[in-house]
Amino acid sequence: MNLREIKKVKREWPDRAMVVSLMVPCEEEPWKKILKEVEDTEADGVELNFGCPHGMSERGMGSAVGQVPEYIEMVARWCKQHTRMPVIVKLTPNITDIRRPANAAKQGGADAVSLINTINSITAIDLDNFAPQPTIDGKGSHGGYCGPAVRPIALSMVSEIARDKDTRGLPISGIGGIATWRDAAEFIALSCGTVQVCTAAMAYGFRIVQEMASGLSNWMNEKGYRTIDDFRGLAVPNVTDWQYLNLNYVTKARIDQDLCIKCGRCYAACEDTSHQAISATKNGRRHFEVIDEECVACNLCVNVCPVDGCITMERLTAGTDPRTGKDINPAYANWTTHPNNPMSLKAAE
Amino acid sequence: MAKVAGPDIRAKRLSAKDYAANFADLHPPLDQHEALVESDRCYFCYDAPCQRACPTGIDIPMFIREINAGNPKGAAKTIYDENILGGMCARVCPTETLCEEACVREAAEGQPVKIGQLQRYATDTLMATGKQPYIRAASTGKRIAVVGAGPAGLACAHRLSFHGHDVTIFEAKKKPGGLNEFGIASYKTVNGFAQKEVDYIISIGGITIKNGKPLSKNLTLDQLRNDYDAVFLGMGLQGVNALGAKHEDADGVDDAVDYISDLRQANDLSKLKVGRRIVVIGGGMTAIDVAVQSKLLGAEDVTILYRRGQHQMKASAYERELAQTRGVKIKHWVMPKKVIAKNGTATGLECEYTEEKKGKLTGTGETFKLEADMIFKAIGQTFIATPLGGLIELDHGRIKIDADHRTSLKGVWAGGDCAAGGQDLTVAAVEDGKRAAESIHSFLTPDT
Ligand SMILES: Cc1cc2nc3c(=O)[nH]c(=O)nc-3n(C[C@H](O)[C@H](O)[C@H](O)COP(=O)(O)OP(=O)(O)OC[C@H]3O[C@@H](n4cnc5c(N)ncnc54)[C@H](O)[C@@H]3O)c2cc1C
Ligand code: SF4
């Protein structure tokens, strides 16, 4: 039935690429058989779903495979042997290090990976009958979490694969909470060649894709990018590890008093949970201003301020940092070399 | 149509359907969905400007957050903690000049969070359960007399009872509520809300209301001071200012507050007479209310005359717009010179244009005549001190009080409209009553 429809759609839309998602028990024969059937539909590729966290994993499919790199490699190899179609391996985020399954897919000969699948989750507990929601006959189990909340996790995992010496260059299809053109562009900037959308379409229908296409092409026009490859991966070199961040980079939050609506959210956030670096009054009047002597540039106020562009981070390049009282050093220095690090001092001794 | 002899004043100008529609709730209550959408707009400001602008200091961001978290009863308690008449205030406060004017979303996009409407949603939800969120403290054995069952008296009584004191309220009228019951525009407080709220407030226990018992020469202040441990005066304003215009006692010239009181007490609005052409003199809330309600009763032409410009009017821009969109005309820089009367019945008004010269208002000498079937005076109310028996010092004609709402007489506190220096708002009266109660409480129980 599915195969018949796939075939029909492909025949009606021959100029579109069609990738078929597959979930099959971990045995060679069933994979061999289904790959043959998919080839008959004239689809353009297959995606091995090693990510599904519910229903299938309990039957030895989906994330049950995706959580064991050896299985990933084995199944990917079978598939590459038994089909001429490109093979994409879809990865589960329910593991500790995404680079291992990605590398296993690569070793098995996969042409690409796609990620992330959904995250094990319980979204809510019904407080009347004390069971997870949705509730089935009084019980509930975990489901797969997706949508905007998982996007930051997906971006991070994509970046790890894009940066790792073993997996670098492996084509990636980005998935996870993509709902607008900007989300798509961010995944592409982290080297994804394609992106996939599900939750947003579930929430709003397929029409949302129209906004993504027009938004992306407007932004590309403004930037002068002709193809996706013109900006693909440009953010990857700028993802680094904490110890290589420039410790001599000094910034202070700045509040634009003309834009400020005096809600005091920045003050509450900074006062209660950060560095007490914002004052709430000036000459007895309600007025919010950053105290440079205290501001460590954590960016929290920027995130809580409800007014776009009202709080910005301004770099100090000369003079002294009022917080530390030390001269601002324009040279780059990271944790491995910085005097603040007792280990680096020791090494220098 | 044949010319009718005499002024055209009559009842039944409208169909039953029109009366019902005209006097329906001005702002229909928010349903749950609307309340959730609206409460989501609140930024939960630090040291919130709205809270500062509220005369009773309700923790507005907190109650809005409680609504948004699906806890409207908790929200109601947050409101009642500062303002036990939070239900009435939600309906009658000029929020556009109080909390909502201060809302940062007014600054951000000219659309404040609908604080009043949300307050009503929360308080209506809790009131519908009929349950008070308070338990009285253990009895102190102290007894307090409260004079007047208006907002000030009720708020004072509730707080005193909460602290374990027993309260008797002496009310001159046959019904409690003060101007909530007799004064507020009827479309702001429909379905007998004022009495329901009084019942709700006194359901805390320990409060007895004695209706038809005015402070007077039969029930003197000295008597109350003898019989009770403390006295609170919340008598409001019982007098009205005179126009000082010739023939102002002619038939057809009425005090706006009296007419509004009749309207509020009418069981059947179609029996209430209203003129075809109405002139209202004044620039405050009462002027607006009598003008709008006359119009809603079916008057054809309603004109408010105010002797200064629109910015000096006490009625807020919102109130003025309410009047104007109901078809009331507001004429500025005019004052009444004399009532034109025929056989003791008013037929119109002679007016003079005014101007301000060096801060002083004077007539320009140019006059004009306005025909009118009814003329309403709404130029302010006054305090009548007679019932006090001369025992208490006044200040600008009202009762002089200190920061704790004590009067010049030991053991006697005062608040609300009858006290000097107030704002003449329901919410301000509530705050006065509450503060006086706290002061009385610490006076009576100095060790706690
Ligand atoms: C027409 C009109 C419309 C108004 N509209 C609004 C509005 O929309 N919003 C707003 O915030 N404010 C409004 N106000 C103002 C508001 O109603 C008052 O500020 C508020 O009611 C004052 O409360 P109070 O308790 O001091 O006095 P009152 O409400 O006047 O209550 C005083 C009580 O004391 C009783 N009393 C008087 N003399 C004696 C006596 N000798 N012995 C015993 N009892 C006595 C009275 O009968 C009355 O019950 C309006 C006022 C008027 C006149
Ligand atoms: S959060 Fe933004 S708008 Fe609010 S007070 Fe701070 S700077 Fe002003």
Explained architecture:
The complex is a heterodimer of chains A (349) and B (448). Chain A has 349 residues and is of the alpha/beta class. Chain A has twelve helices and 14 strands. In chain A, the strands form five sheets. Chain A has a six-stranded parallel β-sheet, with helices on one face. In chain A, strands 5-8 form a two-stranded antiparallel ribbon. Chain A is elongated. Chain A starts with a helix and ends with a helix. The mean pLDDT of chain A is 94. Chain B has three domains: 9-23 and 242-380, FAD/NAD(P)-binding domain, CATH 3.50.50.60; 32-127, Fumarate Reductase Iron-sulfur Protein, Chain B, domain 2 (Orthogonal Bundle), CATH 1.10.1060; 143-238 and 383-444, FAD/NAD(P)-binding domain, CATH 3.50.50.60. Chain B is built from 17 helices and 19 strands. Chain B has helices at residues 16-22, 32-39, 49-53, 60-68, 72-82, 86-92, 99-102, 104-109, 115-127, 151-162, 179-182, 193-202, 221-227, 256-265, 285-296, 317-325, 426-444, and strands at residues 9-10, 143-147, 166-170, 207-210, 230-233, 239-240, 253-255, 274-275, 277-281, 301-305, 329-331, 334-342, 345-357, 360-371, 374-377, 381-382, 394-395, 398-399, 412-414. A five-stranded parallel β-sheet of chain B has the order 4-3-2-5-19, with helices on both faces. Chain B has a five-stranded parallel β-sheet with strand order 7-15-9-10-11. The mean pLDDT of chain B is 95. The A-B interface holds A 261-265, 267-268, 271, 280, 286, 306-307 and B 43-49, 104-105, 107-108. The complex binds flavin-adenine dinucleotide and iron/sulfur cluster. Iron/sulfur cluster binds at residues 255, 260-266, 288, 304-305, 307, 310-311 of chain A.
Give the DSSP E fraction of chain B (strand runs of 2 or more residues): 15-25%
CATH domain fold name of the largest domain in chain B: FAD/NAD(P)-binding domain
Numbering strands along the chain, what is their spatial order in the largest sheet of chain B?
4-3-2-5-19
**Oligomeric description of these chains:** heterodimer
Low-confidence stretches of chain B: none
- Any idea what the CATH architecture of the largest domain in chain B is? 3-Layer(bba) Sandwich
* Series of secondary-structure elements of chain A, N-terminal to C-terminal: HEHEHHEHEEEEEHEHEHHEHEEHEH
Output mean pLDDT of chain A: 94
- What ligand species are in this complex? flavin-adenine dinucleotide, iron/sulfur cluster
Structure classification of chain B: alpha/beta
